[in-house]
Amino acid sequence: MRLPAIPARLCATAGAAALIAVPLAGQAVAATASAPTVTQDRLTPTSMTAGVATTAGLTVHAKSCFTAKTLGVGVRDKAGDNLDFPGSASNVRICPAGVSITTGSRTLPAGSYTEFGFWQDTAGAWHNLASHTLTVAPAATTKPTAPATPTPTPTPTPSAPATPPATATSGSPVAGQKLIWSDDFSSPIAWGSTWVGDTTTSFQYGNHNPNDNKLDWLDPSAVSVANGVATFTATPSTHVLENGKTAWNTGLLTTEGSTQGFQVKTGEYVETRVQLPTAAGAWPALWTWKNGNGEIDSFEYHPDNPNLLELTNHVNPAQDYYTDANAIAPGKWVTIGTYYGANSVSWYVNGTKVYSDGTGVGANWSAYLILSLSVSAGEYHPAPTGSAPITFAADYVRVYG
Question: Which of 298, 207, 235 is nearest to 13 (CA)?
């Protein structure tokens, strides 16, 4: 999630927070003599409207049946950056009769793009299909009617999050595990002993990381605790990043560098309960990091993909764009858990397993925990549209083993 050298499909991640983890469909495709022949029969849309979330559709067939590791819809802008539709399908059986998929939704700025289907074979090679032009029209504008008496709009200020709704007692889905570490945010942040908030080795400059499409400038005062909830508040900063963009002060909690130095390891399960943010530019995540590696993203979220969580294993690359309009939406509280299996990492949403990657972290993996609110710089997801504070809330972080 956080290395600028790692490409992303929809965004960058928290040592990275965005849709990442696998090679880009737009990169050079490794040709293999044994690759099946896949024909693209349908590709939609051909047009969109800026700011309007839209899904893509793809229908393909093959001369004989085989299983593709991934099937999805790619988008490339004029600069060559990949802005793919989220929600690629995994382990898809492609036969002469054909198969169709519908992706998750996304928005794009006005302009002209190249759209194409792509698939990945079991050896990991990517294959791009026929492309066409995707035209994104500017959003329609309506001249507002001036009110009889203008009323000034007050400057918005962040408010404390509502107390999270009651929920059944959570716990590890793995039989026999018990709670081994937790912070329920029932008391002020234990800076220095449990958490560190002013630096992380996942950021190129320690307290900021502009090359990962982030406006972040870490500030421990951006994390506050009240009513058993930790609230992260991002606000415009006086700092200017190396790329000339104005930074935002924001919050990050990491166990790296704390006196306790807690690390999660293979065979353990981490769980958090969070209230997803609503504001453009918000980029919250729970993830791990150690020595320039070790990254497992329990989740990343962007309000412009309102019903989608990005679930990513960067250790042994695997990824899923999990979509659920009932459980995932701006302002909703959701419980997200990750089991760090040696041979397969599994993700849980509200107690239900939603994805297992089949790659795992290996027998000797360990890493520090990070819970953060990053601010998107606009390359893969919209940047903030104004100066109003951006907030994100967490009820707890718990580890079972």
Answer: 298
E-only strand ranges, 276-341? 282-289, 296-300, 308-313, 318-323, 333-340
Q: What integer pLDDT is reported at residue 166 of this predicted model?
A: 61
Q: Is the pLDDT higher at 282 or at 83?
A: 282
Percent of the chain with pLDDT over 90: 64
Q: Spell out the residues 6+ positions from residue 352 whose beta carbon is closer than 8 angstroms to its own.
A: none
Nearest alpha-carbon partner for 208 in 240, 178, 176? 240
Q: 182 or 110: whose pLDDT is higher?
A: 182
Mean pLDDT of 294-314: 97
Which structural domain range is residue 71 located in? Answer: 38-137
Reported as a single tens digit per residue, the pLDDT across 71-92 is 999 999 888 888 898 888 888 8
* Of the residues 137, 160, 192, the one at which a domain ends: 137
Shared domain check, 233 and 330: yes
For range 253-274, the mean pLDDT:
98
Q: Return the amino acid letter for 282.
A: A
Distance, in Å, from the CA atom of 339 to the CA atom of 57, rounded to the nearest integer, reads 32
Distance separating alpha carbons of residues 136 and 117, to the nearest angstrom = 18
| Residue among 119, 121, 123 at smallest CA distance from 71 | 119
CA-CA distance, 96 to 233, in Å (whole number)?
53
Burial class (CB in 10 A: 0-12, 13-18, 19+), 268: buried
Token pair, residue 347, equals: 């993700």
The maximal CA–CA distance of the chain, rounded, in angstroms, is 72
Amino acid letter, residue 214: K
Residues 131 and 192 in one domain: no
CATH number, domain of 187, equals 2.60.120.200
Count of CB atoms within 10 A of residue 55's CB?
17
